Amino acid sequence: MSDQPVLKLENIVRSFDDLVILDGANLEVQRGEMIALLGPSGSGKSSLLHVAGLLEPPTGGRVYIDGEDVSDVNDKTRTALRRDRIGFVYQFHHLLPEFNAEANVSFPQRIAGVPPGKAAERSRELLTGLGLAERMDHQPAQLSGGEKQRVAIARALANRPSLLLADEPTGNLDVETSRKVFDALMSIVRGEGLAAIIATHDQGLASHMDRVVTIKNRKLVPGLLEVSTV
């Protein structure tokens, strides 16, 4: 196993016209490490995750995944990296409404060329681990908000990524459901041995992760700062 960090962000700059969102952000995430990403609304949490997940190019700086500089790869390679090495969880689940839970989790595997039987087996394994063994045949409209988000987590992990990026994954849920979903997320991330960055406004959830980083003055600084997250 490589001793390289799963993700390395080096002097990342992200700007839109004259508006600088990130200016010299640096971060390394090791395998098996969960990092909480905090910062006020508009501070650049989503932008940083989009750069890390190869959804947006940085204006400056370099992005490394498993020791490989992927800053300037072409679109085809970028798409393959996102499919094979990176899992995404968003605040809203974005499940396919016409498919049941198992099919939603199988879908990215089928795109990656996994045979139907193997895809279904992996989907059932993940959904069972997330407490959804009795809900696999249900469509999103038949699931609660917390159940939908757990299906979305399973889908993000379906192709066995090395890096999980989550943008306020419990931000649309009530406090009790949020805790249950977060506990399920933490358990399965630990079990899969992933590197993970979880953007959240919930300092209580952040305190349960391995490390906290906060965006302040367009840079990443270690620890929980006294800043408003509103």
From TrEMBL:
One of its GO terms (cellular component) is membrane protein complex. It holds the Pfam family ABC_tran. Coiled coil: none annotated. It comes from the Bacteria. InterPro entries: AAA+_ATPase, ABC_transporter-like_ATP-bd, ABC_transporter-like_CS, ABC_transpr_LolD-like, MacB-like_ATP-bd, P-loop_NTPase. Residues 7-230 form the ABC transporter domain. GO terms for molecular function: ATP binding; ATP hydrolysis activity; transmembrane transporter activity. One of its GO terms (biological process) is lipoprotein localization to outer membrane. Keywords: ATP-binding, Cell inner membrane, Cell membrane, Membrane, Nucleotide-binding, Transport. Belongs to the ABC transporter superfamily. Macrolide exporter (TC 3.A.1.122) family. This is ABC transporter ATP-binding protein. It comes from Parvularcula marina.
